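sry for the spam today, last one i promise. C-alpha cells for design, 270 residues
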C-alpha cells in the first residue's frame, strides 16, 4: 500500500517553465481507479496512548469526483489520509478495497505531503526512479518522463539536481512523478500550503490533469476557495469524526451542521 518512500507533489516556475496543458488521455487510462475502488472504511478509529484521535469513521471512496477533506486544525484529516494510504493501521475498524492485492501494488497508490521528498539526483532521474520502483516497463520510461516533465513545466530543468529546486518546483516534480507512475488513487495532504497564488494555480492545474487521466483524488486543504474549485464532494471533520459529507455544491450553499456553517464563515471551532 505504501509508496516505497516516493512522496509525490509541485510549485513555482519561471515563465519559460509553465506547466503544459497535456492530453490526459495520453497519461493514463480512464478506468484505472475502478479496478481497486471502492475503498470502504468501516468503524475506523485510531488511538495514541489515551488520546482518541479518530473515531466512528464510516466512509466510502468510489466514483470519480475529487473528494476534499476540510476541517479545523487537529480534526484528524492528515491522520485519515495516512490510514487510507496504509502508512498507519487503525486501532479499531477496517479498510476494505475492491481488490486488496491490486491496491497493495506500488503503482496503485501515491501520497503527496506538504513537504516533498527529493532524491539527490536530477529532476529527470527522480521520475525514472519512481517508474522503476513502481514496476513500470523500462521501455516506457523515456516517453513517460518526457510527458511528465512537459506537463509540469520542468523540461528546462530536467538535468538540475532536484534538491536545488525551489519549494514550488519540488512540489511540481513530486506531482510529475505521479503523472509518470499513473497511480489509481492519489492522496494529497495540503500540497499548496506553502505556495504563493501563482504556484498554487500551477499545482491545481496538475491535479486536474491527474484527475482527468483517471486517478481518484482525495485531498486535504484549508483553502476553502481551492475546495470550491476542485471538489466533487466534501468530507468535513471535527474532533476526529466526520460530521458532514456529501456533494460539494450542497455543502457550500447549504451546510447541514452548525459546525460546518461556522467553519465556512471563518469562525474558530473548538
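last one done:
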Amino acid at each position: 500500500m505504501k509508496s516505497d518512500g516516493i512522496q509525490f507533489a509541485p510549485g513555482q516556475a519561471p515563465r519559460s517553465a509553465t506547466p503544459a496543458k497535456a492530453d490526459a488521455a495520453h497519461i493514463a487510462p480512464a478506468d484505472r481507479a475502478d479496478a481497486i475502488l471502492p475503498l470502504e472504511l468501516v468503524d475506523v478509529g485510531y488511538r495514541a496512548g489515551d488520546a482518541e484521535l479518530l473515531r466512528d469513521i464510516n466512509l466510502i471512496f468510489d466514483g470519480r469526483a475529487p473528494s476534499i477533506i476540510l476541517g479545523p486544525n487537529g480534526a484528524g484529516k492528515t491522520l485519515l489520509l495516512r490510514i487510507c494510504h496504509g502508512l498507519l493501521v487503525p486501532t479499531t475498524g477496517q479498510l476494505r478495497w475492491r481488490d486488496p492485492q491490486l491496491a497493495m501494488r506500488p503503482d496503485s497508490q501515491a501520497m503527496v505531503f506538504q513537504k516533498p521528498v527529493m532524491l539527490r539526483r536530477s529532476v529527470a532521474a527522480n521520475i525514472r526512479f519512481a517508474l522503476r520502483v513502481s514496476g513500470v516497463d523500462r521501455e516506457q520510461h523515456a516517453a513517460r518522463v518526457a510527458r511528465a516533465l512537459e506537463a509540469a513545466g520542468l523540461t528546462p530543468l530536467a538535468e538540475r539536481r532536484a534538491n536545488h529546486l525551489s519549494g514550488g518546483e519540488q512540489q511540481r516534480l513530486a506531482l510529475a512523478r505521479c503523472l509518470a507512475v499513473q497511480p489509481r488513487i492519489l492522496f494529497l495532504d495540503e500540497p499548496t500550503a506553502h505556495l504563493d497564488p501563482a504556484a498554487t494555480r500551477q499545482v491545481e492545474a496538475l491535479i486536474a490533469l491527474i484527475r482527468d487521466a483517471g486517478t481518484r483524488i482525495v485531498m486535504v486543504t484549508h483553502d476553502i476557495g481551492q475546495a470550491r474549485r476542485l471538489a466533487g464532494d466534501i468530507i468535513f471533520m471535527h474532533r476526529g469524526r466526520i460530521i458532514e459529507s456529501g456533494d460539494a455544491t450542497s455543502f457550500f450553499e447549504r451546510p447541514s451542521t452548525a459546525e460546518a456553517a461556522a467553519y465556512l464563515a471563518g469562525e474558530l471551532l473548538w
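The first helix runs from residue 77 to 85. ok im logging off now
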